[in-house]
UniProtKB/TrEMBL annotation:
It comes from Enterococcus florum. The lineage of its organism: Bacteria, Bacillati, Bacillota, Bacilli, Lactobacillales. GO terms for molecular function: proton-transporting ATP synthase activity, rotational mechanism. It is a peripheral membrane protein. It holds the Pfam family OSCP. F(1)F(0) ATP synthase produces ATP from ADP in the presence of a proton or sodium gradient. F-type ATPases consist of two structural domains, F(1) containing the extramembraneous catalytic core and F(0) containing the membrane proton channel, linked together by a central stalk and a peripheral stalk. During catalysis, ATP synthesis in the catalytic domain of F(1) is coupled via a rotary mechanism of the central stalk subunits to proton translocation. This is ATP synthase subunit delta. Belongs to the ATPase delta chain family. It is found in: Cell membrane; Membrane.
């Protein structure tokens, strides 16, 4: 039975994380994985190239060797194993799982901030600090989302919770209350 990308990502990401914890290198591995993610964002077809049957094995080997050369130890070995098992196109799922476990270990709440207009980095950091404090985390990493339909205010989603302070939801609540009377 062929495993889906999500399952493969969870298994490989978990294995890499456990190795990093064992070697007390979670931060170094995390930074390397961020670099790898950036490369995959700049060259989105890299994973597909490494698994493409139209390329000769020696061509793919050369690409992977050159790519892995930029990394040391656990990450380099991990990349080579992922390539050897023909899972390069699943690498971003593996990084996602590692990152999830890394954030859990370091008590980082992940989520999003939705506003009607873009907010400043300073305001984002203030909201992240407050969310981390309220939820009991060391810090929060919230991705900004702009949605003009909320009219104003902010919606924060983190740690499976939603704090809806949007003007749109307040107006809907007022509308519902007025329609009951």
């Amino acid at each position: 039975m062929k495993l889906d990308k999500y399952t493969v990502g969870k298994r490989y990401g978990k294995a890499l994380f456990e190795l990093a914890v064992e070697g007390q290198a979670t931060e170094e591995v995390y930074q390397d994985l961020l670099t790898i993610r950036k490369v995959f964002e700049e060259i989105p077809d890299l994973g597909n190239m490494l698994t493409d049957v139209r390329l000769h094995g020696y061509e793919k080997d050369a690409i992977m060797q050159a790519f892995a050369q930029g990394f040391d130890g656990v990450v380099k070995n991990f990349l080579l194993i992922v390539y050897e098992y023909n899972r390069s196109d699943d690498l971003l799922f593996m990084i996602d799982e590692y990152e999830r476990r890394y954030d859990q270990l370091n008590q980082v709440a992940l989520g999003s901030i939705t506003t009607a207009v873009a907010i400043s980095e300073e305001k984002k950091q203030q909201i992240e600090a407050k969310v981390a404090d309220v939820l009991g985390y060391k810090r929060a990493d919230l991705s900004p989302v702009v949605d003009p339909s909320i009219i104003g205010g902010v919606i924060v989603e983190a740690d499976h919770q939603v704090i809806d302070g949007s003007l749109a939801s307040q107006l809907n609540g007022l509308r519902a209350a007025l329609s009951k009377k």
